[in-house]
Structure formats: C-alpha cells, structure tokens
Specification:
By secondary structure, the chain is an alpha/beta fold. It folds into 2 domains: about 350 residues, TIM Barrel; about 170 residues, Glycoside hydrolase family 3 C-terminal domain (Rossmann fold, 3-Layer(aba) Sandwich). The chain is built from 22 helices and 18 strands. It has an 8-stranded parallel beta sheet with strand order 9-8-7-6-3-2-1-10. A 6-stranded mixed beta sheet has the order 11-16-15-14-12-13, with helices on both faces. Helix 3 packs across helix 15, helix 5 runs parallel beside helix 6 and helix 8 runs parallel beside helix 9.
Length: about 650
C-alpha cells in the first residue's frame, strides 16, 4: 500500500470480538476496600484445602491470612512492609539473590489456566488443564511452575462474575503464598473495553478506544481508566493489557481497527496517557500495546506474520508518539508486537524477539525501564520463524521480562531453565527481569495486600455511579456522519413502528444479546415499537427477502452494519430496503468505514462497537434524547477512490 501519511490539520487532542486463546472527570472517589495489614480480612473468600469446598464458601480467619503472607515476610527478611512506592531496591535485590533458579524462571511466566476456582474447578476445566498444561488446577499450576502471573479469560471460565473472580484471585494468591518463599501473583487480563473485554456485566463496561477517540476527551479517558482500574483491583486483577497505543492508519487492519484511539498520533498519545494515569491512579498496572506499533497492517498477527513497511522517519512521526507519551506518563508495562519492522530491525525477526527494537530502541532510545511483556506466545506471528522452545529464550535475550501464555508451558519453562544452565542466558540477565517484575508487584502493594474482599467487590464493581459515568461517556462518542433532510432524530409520533435488521456478530463481554435485539429493546424503551430481525454479516438472498417483507409494515428501518466490503451482501440488503422508499437509518456497529460503501443511506451513525453501552447510546441519539457529539478519529476514504477523503478526521454532525 502507499506510504502512510501522518494526518495533518488536526490541532490538539480531539478518544467480531477477538476470541480464541491467543490473545469530564466524574470525580467520585475510589470505592475500593482492601485488607489492611493487621486487620481482619472480612469477606475475603479463599478455598479451604482441608474441606474440599469451593472458593465461594470458605472465609479465612485473620490467622490463616497472616500465615499465608508469612512466606513473604520471611523471604524479604525485613521488618517493614511495602510502602506506597514499593519495597526499596536493596530489599528487592536481596530477595532475588536468595531465590532459586526455578523460582526466578517461574516469575517470568504469565499463564492461562481453566476454571472458576483455584482448587475446585469444573471437571471439564480440569481435563482441559491436564491436556494443555499438565496440571489440574490453578493452585497446581502455581505450585509446579512458580509462575509470577496468571491471565484471566472468559473462555477459560475465569470471569463468571465479580465475586467469583475475587474468590479465584484469592485462591491463586493463597496457593502461591503458601509455598516456600511464596510470592504474590500478578493477575492480569485484557480489559480494553469495546470489543475486547474479559470481564462482563455486572462490571462497568465503557466504549472502546475508537469511540473514546471520537469523544476526544482526555478527562473521559482518565475516568475510564480510574473506574475500570478500581473495579479490576477489587476483583484482584492488578495488570490490565490496555490501552492500545497503535495508530490505526490502515482501514483494512483486521486486528486493531476500532481497538485504536484513531489515526492522529497526537490525539492517540493524549488519550493513551490519560488512560494510563487513570488505571495507575487506581493502582492497576496499565500496559501500552503493541510496540513498536501494529496500526498499519492488513495481516492479523494471531494467524500470520505482518510486515510493517514504515520508514524510520514515519515510525518516529506516527507509531512512536503514543508510546513516548505512555512512557512520559509513567506506564508500568509495555506489550510487544509479533510484527516484522525492517526499518527498525532488518533481521526478519518479529519485534518480540528483536534486541535492536526492545533493548536498543525501547530501553535505549526511549529510556523505558519498566516491565516488557510479550503478546501471547501462542500467536502465529511469533511462531513462524522459530520453534516454541526457542521463542521464550530469544524473547528474554531481546529484552522481554514477562512471557505471556506460551502454547506449551512445560517446553517454554524448561527451555529458559536450560538456557541459563548452559550459559546462553546469563543469570544476571534473568535477575534483571525478575527484579522488574518484583518491583512492579511491590509498587502495586501486592507484598502488603495480596487479597481482596467481597465487601470491596460489593462497594466497587458496577455501582450506579460507575454505570452512569459509562453511559454519559458513551453519549459523547456516538458520531453522526449523514443526516439528509434532517431525518434524525426519529419521533415516535411519526415513526412508531421500527424494524431493526442487520449484522449480529459474536457477542463480546458487555452484551446482553445480539446488536439488533439490543437496539430494538432500547428503542422500544424510548417510545417506539421496535422489532428485531437478524440478517447476519453475509445475508443470503432469502434472508434479504424476509427483511424486505418485514419492512413493508414498518414506518422506518434501522440497519446495523458490520465491516461492509465492496462485495458484501449487506450492501444488497440496504439497497433493497432503500428501494421501498421508507426512511433508513444505518448504525455502523464496528468500523466507521462502512459509510463509504453505502452512499445512498440518508442517515448514518457510527457506534464503533456492538456492546450494550454503545448501542444504547446510539438508540438515545436516534430518538433525540441526546445530541450526537462524536467526531471521526480516523479519515474515511471514498470506496471507489481511496486516495480521496470522504469524511476527514474531526468530522461529525449534530442536532
């Protein structure tokens, strides 16, 4: 493709789910309550190994919690506790010096594990763990490999509800702290909001990054991070793989797209920095990803090996800007990308395995000394060139600190162990990464407060104030791109009967149903009589005919579009509906680029995601309950001539 251009003329800052196994300030105070040193851990549910009960029934006494944390005190051999800024460097180095090689290696791994409980998961999850990891439970994973981190996924049944998540987190911490020289575990997840969320309702769910880019408010971005961080912390999740710092300049990008704040590097940088400050103000480690920049690719690194063709100058002007901002904001961790970037390293290695990129540029030139975590090591982008036994070793040699989710933990763990024993990796290099990981745990207060309480979950997760904040932010992101003849807002008096048709992609966390159903329900609540008819992302001729027949009895039609291409049958659906002569309102439920493929639609909204919070905000805009306030954070090119911009960055209508 043509060399990307840095968007110009933008002054100042204007904010199908990824599935599978790879992968104004509201002002309310943080509503989180954690166990204080020496206090009774009321409501902190931890599995009691002596009873065989599940994690949501056993509540430890003060004595049991203090016993569990005693290993930390002994390991540190100091009389004090972690301070707000973490344990001092001397004490952490002393701890590292006493750790065994196996303990050090374990600290560098962040691993998935199936199950809702650390000790008593469902049998199907036990079977999956035995097959993939060789252990039965999360507790056994921690005991066998001494892993420093665990990542939660919905598909691994880790995130059923907030109280269960807190129990699981406490169970994992208890398992680790009960070991000789037990250390707290850094529990993480991908809670980007929008189309990538691992923790669903009743937690508070916000618009995704591109929607936040459309809102353009750094204050809103900081509020998102602060509220989301508080809720994650209440559930024991202390590292969030968010925000996405990639600048999305390629409309065909299959893996980033609406996960990016936009195409203007300065705007993206401001929102990234704001979100980082929000999360870390809640003492949750934010993670800027995917370094050195995954915003201009037509290949998904989950399934292929993308090559970024930017020059070094383009990288400096475009991709590097948000990462510099994240570092300036004090980012705790940065995630690598499984991409080839010849202008930065011409070896052909992915950035995850590139010493010139991670040590030379990220640490040397950008001055970053925090934790570097890989993207999932099960992704094809990092496995194309090297075997699973070489990837973790090469990543550490490149400058990585945390090895995320290798496809075969036993192979990866022993590969690192053997590399140190044979001298390929020095123990000094290993100690550097272990020290960074422990520094982060100390900074987050995990040595002092490893457990969370059910009372804290109740006070913090999904509160009315948090939910209201998410709704208000969503209303500021909905973008009106077309409104011929002032069709919008629709009035129930004139357009009482609505038919809602369109795409119903797989539901990410944060959805209570398919997009057509959510939109129809929201519009009905607003005074319309709305009926939903799912037509899918590739409607057949028979499906289109059913939709046209159903529309005959409607006063207006609302169409949810999803990644419409030049050959998409969604175009045929819309054209057939337009031919009826009825008002048609389209809502792009993922990429805003859809509008270029459907030039005849008289009213078009961009919602940027099909989660409830964004769809319900779009419904309120359709009904005129709120005014559309979003502005495009990416340019939309003409479908017939991509060199021509149809709607520029900053474009958006209102009423």
């Amino acid at each position: 493709m043509a060399a990307p251009q840095v968007p110009s003329g933008v002054g100042g800052f204007v904010c199908g789910p990824l599935t599978g196994r790879n992968f104004p300030d509201i002002g309310d105070p943080l509503e989180v309550s954690f166990i204080q040193r020496g206090s009774s851990p009321e409501g902190a549910h931890v599995h009691d190994d002596s009873t065989g009960r599940t994690g949501n029934t056993a509540t430890p006494s003060r004595r049991s919690v203090l016993a569990a944390t005693a290993g930390i005190t002994a390991a540190l051999a100091v009389g004090g506790t972690a301070q707000a800024a973490g344990l001092d460097e001397h004490r952490l180095r002393a701890l590292v010096s006493r750790m065994t090689l196996e303990e050090k290696v374990g600290q560098l791994f962040v691993m998935r594990v199936y199950g809702h409980s650390a000790t008593a998961p469902d049998q199907a999850d036990i079977d999956a763990n035995l097959k993939e990891i060789g252990v039965r439970t999360a507790a056994e994973l921690v005991e066998k490999y001494r892993v420093g981190g665990v990542i939660y996924f919905a598909w691994a049944h880790n995130t059923r509800d907030p109280h269960q998540i807190a129990d699981l987190s406490n169970g994992i911490q208890k398992a680790s702290l009960g070991l000789p020289r037990g250390l707290p575990v850094l529990i993480s997840t991908d809670q980007e909001h929008g189309i990538v969320c691992r923790v669903g309702k009743p937690a508070t769910l916000f618009p995704g990054a591109m929607a936040m880019g459309a809102g353009g408010s750094r204050t809103d971005a900081r509020a998102l991070g602060r509220i989301s961080g508080a809720e994650l912390r209440a559930m024991g999740i202390r590292q969030d793989y968010s925000p996405v710092a990639d600048v999305n300049v390629n409309p065909a990008n299959p893996v980033i797209g609406v996960r990016s704040f936009g195409a203007d590097p300065r705007a993206v940088a401001g929102l990234v920095a704001a979100e980082v400050k929000g999360y870390q103000g809640s003492r949750v480690a934010a993670t800027a990803k995917h370094f050195p920049g995954h915003g201009d690719t037509a290949v998904d690194s989950h399934y292929g090996f993308p090559v970024i063709t930017h020059t070094r100058e383009q990288w400096e002007a475009l991709d590097a800007v948000p990462f510099r901002a994240a570092i300036a904001a004090g980012i705790d961790s940065i995630m690598t990308a499984h991409i080839q970037f010849p202008a930065l390293d011409d070896s052909g290695d992915p950035a995850t395995l590139s010493r010139p990129i991670l040590t030379g540029i990220l640490r040397g030139e950008l001055g970053y000394d925090g934790v570097v975590v890989t993207d999932s090591l099960g992704m094809e982008g990092v496995r194309t060139k090297y075997g699973d036994d070489r990837v973790p070793v090469l990543a550490l040699k490149a400058g990585v600190d945390q090895l995320l989710n290798p496809p075969d933990l036993d192979v990866a763990w022993h590969a690192v162990l053997d590399a140190v024993r044979t001298g390929e990796l020095t123990e000094e290099r290993l100690d550097e990464s272990v020290l960074r990981v422990l520094r982060l745990k100390a900074k987050l207060g995990l040595f002092e407060q490893p457990y969370v309480t059910q009372a804290g979950v109740e006070r913090t997760v999904g509160t009315a104030r948090h939910l209201a904040a998410a709704d208000a932010i969503a209303e500021r992101t909905t973008t009106l791109l077309v409104n011929e003849g002032s069709l919008l807002p629709l009035a129930p008096e004139e357009h009482r009967k609505l038919l809602v048709v369109g795409a119903d992609p797989a539901s990410p966390s944060g959805t209570t149903g398919p997009p057509t159903g959510v939109l129809a329900g929201a519009l009905t609540e607003l005074g319309f009589t709305a009926t939903a008819l799912s037509t899918g992302t590739a409607p057949s001729q028979a499906t289109i005919a059913r939709a046209v027949a159903a529309a005959a009895d409607a006063d207006a039609v609302v169409v949810a579009t999803y990644n419409v291409s030049a050959t998409s049958s969604q175009k045929t659906l819309v054209q057939r509906l337009l031919a009826l002569g009825k008002p048609v309102v389209a809502v792009a439920v993922r990429n805003p680029y859809d509008v270029a493929q459907l030039p005849g639609v008289p009213a078009y909204l961009a919602a940027y995601s099909w989660t409830d919070v964004e769809l319900r905000a779009a419904a309120r805009v359709v009904a005129g309950r709120v005014h559309p306030g979003g502005r495009l954070p990416v340019p939309v090119q003409r479908a017939d001539d991509p060199t021509q911009v149809l709607y520029p960055i900053g474009y958006g209508l209102s009423y």
